[in-house]
């Protein structure tokens, strides 16, 4: 991988608009990025990846000197229409917020959605980067350095948002790199549901360098669903990281169907006593896709709990990677964690899956479990369905759907389950 100073230097970052505090933040991040080293698959955190085949010098940052478009893309409008009973909508185009909606009743109660470009001071400015900075890497520094905007949701203490807020990220432009950013802040005892959508069109080569941060106050509860449906020429390198306060709860689900190489780091940091997280994912790779997941369940306080269930299937020449760590810190007395990854491999090599669960235990009196499985469709199940007159292709499809169903049924936003089943059906039907 190579970089070009012309495309990703401080002089380029200075051409982005925004408040002075954000400009200063960008320059500091660009300097850290320039001082860093491009990742390689020889590093454990990038093991089994295709990172060496990413040529960064092929890309130009979006929204430099006006490279970018306003307005709601049709794909984002379709997602919003799929969740009609929503409290708010944020549409982000190549990292820049282009549309905002929020119920007047929530505005009156202090709930806010917006773009950090419009922020002068306050909790949004103070919270930006607080989750991600403690897990920064080469790509998060690049995101900070060329941040053209960031969608934020702020729910103040004690406020319950009963209907979901949708954040639709649309990435476009051949040879461009966009920097989607979402920041969700929940005050003490606040509750909200946020649905994120990340997508791009077919027929382009694009890089999406995305960061999502959750700052969840004591006693708060956040439900989150993220759907990744990028076009086949898009690379995604994404971080989702949360800090979870005392007796607070995160329920987060990811569905990954698109992209050429699509990577997600999903990290929950349980910093308060009694904090809990529930991480789910469903992924289905076909063609030559690589779907790459790295997870962290970081228990830093006593009586915390986390549960993780990631399920995936790969077909044709596709590959998947799962590498997860449960980290029980010294102070994590009476903590509990479960980690499970299961994979179906539907075709012979080079189709394949990697699964690497890990435990790091520094505390006594904790409970941990981890499990992983990689294998083909169960022949007995296939035989049972075929013996009852079901065609082999239909029998295989039913088994794959059944494999995914327990995760889809647990999605925090039940209204999305059926559209996602439809999307998986379409992807399964498009196999060669």
Structure description:
With 432 residues, this protein is an alpha/beta fold. The chain has helices at residues 5-8, 10-13, 20-35, 74-82, 104-108, 123-127, 138-145, 379-386, 392-408, 417-429, and strands at 60-61, 88-93, 96-102, 112-115, 151-155, 165-170, 176-178, 181-186, 191-199, 206-216, 221-229, 234-244, 249-256, 261-270, 276-285, 290-299, 305-314, 319-328, 336-345, 352-361, 367-375. It is built from ten helices and 21 strands. Strands 1, 4, 5, 7, 8, 10, 12, 14, 16, 18 and 20 form an eleven-stranded mixed β-sheet that branches. Strands 3-2-6-9-11-13-15-17-19-21 form a ten-stranded mixed β-sheet. Strand 2 and strand 3 (96-102) form a beta hairpin. The radius of gyration is 21 Å and the shape is globular. It starts with a helix and ends with a helix. The mean pLDDT is 92.
Segments where pLDDT lies below 50 for 5+ residues? none
State the shape: globular
Percent of residues in helices:
10-25%
Determine the structural class based on helices, strands and strand pairing: alpha/beta
Number of DSSP E strands: 21
Largest sheet: 11 strands, mixed
Radius of gyration: 21 Å
The total count of helices amounts to 10
Strand residues, percent: 35-45%
Cα-to-Cα separation, first versus last residue: 31 Å
Mean pLDDT: 92
Number of domains: 1
Helices and strands, with pairings:
Elements (H helix, E strand, L loop, with lengths): L4 H4 L1 H4 L6 H16 L24 E2 L12 H9 L5 E6 L2 E7 L1 H5 L3 E4 L7 H5 L10 H8 L5 E5 L9 E6 L5 E3 L2 E6 L4 E9 L6 E11 L4 E9 L4 E11 L4 E8 L4 E10 L5 E10 L4 E10 L5 E10 L4 E10 L7 E10 L6 E10 L5 E9 L3 H8 L5 H17 L8 H13 L3
Parallel strand pairs: 1-7, 2-6, 5-8, 6-9, 7-10, 8-10, 9-11, 10-12, 11-13, 12-14, 13-15, 14-16, 15-17, 16-18, 17-19, 18-20, 19-21
Antiparallel strand pairs: 2-3, 4-5
Helix pairs in contact: 3-7, 8-9
């Amino acid at each position: 991988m190579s970089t070009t100073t012309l495309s990703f230097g401080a002089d380029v970052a200075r051409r982005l608009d925004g408040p002075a505090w954000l400009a200063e933040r960008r320059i500091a991040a660009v300097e850290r990025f320039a001082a860093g080293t491009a990742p390689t698959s020889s590093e454990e955190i990038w093991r089994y990846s295709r990172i060496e085949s990413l040529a960064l010098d092929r890309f130009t940052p979006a929204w430099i000197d006006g490279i970018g478009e306003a307005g709601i893309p049709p794909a984002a409008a379709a997602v919003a229409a799929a969740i009609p009973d929503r409290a708010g909508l944020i549409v982000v185009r190549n990292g820049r917020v282009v549309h905002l909606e929020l119920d007047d009743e929530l505005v009156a109660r202090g709930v806010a959605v917006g773009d950090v470009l419009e922020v002068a001071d306050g909790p949004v400015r103070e919270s930006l980067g607080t989750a991600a900075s403690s897990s920064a890497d080469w790509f998060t520094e690049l995101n900070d350095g060329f941040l053209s905007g960031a969608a934020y949701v702020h729910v103040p203490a004690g406020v319950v948002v009963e209907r979901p807020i949708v954040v639709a990220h649309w990435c476009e432009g051949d040879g461009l790199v966009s920097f989607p950013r979402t920041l969700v802040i929940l005050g003490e005892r606040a509750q909200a549901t946020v649905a994120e959508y990340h997508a791009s069109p077919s027929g382009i080569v694009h890089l999406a360098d995305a960061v999502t941060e959750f700052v969840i106050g004591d006693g708060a509860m956040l439900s989150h669903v993220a759907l990744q449906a990028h076009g086949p020429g898009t690379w995604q390198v994404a971080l989702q990281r949360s800090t979870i306060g005392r007796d607070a709860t995160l329920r987060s689900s990811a569905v990954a169907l698109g992209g050429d190489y699509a990577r997600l780091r999903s990290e929950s940091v349980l910093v308060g006593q009694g904090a809990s997280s529930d991480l789910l994912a469903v992924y289905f790779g076909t063609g030559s896709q690589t779907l790459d997941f790295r997870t962290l369940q970081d228990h830093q306080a006593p009586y915390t709990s986390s549960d993780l269930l990631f399920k995936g299937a790969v077909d044709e020449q596709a590959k998947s990677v799962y590498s997860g760590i449960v980290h029980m810190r010294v102070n994590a007395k009476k903590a509990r964690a479960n980690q499970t990854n299961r994979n179906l491999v539907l075709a012979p090599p080079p189709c394949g899956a990697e699964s690497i669960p890990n435990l790091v235990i520094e505390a006594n009196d904790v409970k941990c479990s981890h499990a992983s499985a990689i294998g083909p469709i169960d022949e007995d199940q296939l035989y049972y369905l075929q013996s009852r007159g079901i065609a082999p292709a239909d029998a295989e499809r039913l088994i794959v759907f059944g494999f995914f169903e327990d995760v889809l049924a647990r999605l925090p936003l039940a209204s999305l389950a059926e559209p996602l089943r439809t999307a998986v059906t379409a992807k399964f039907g498009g196999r060669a």
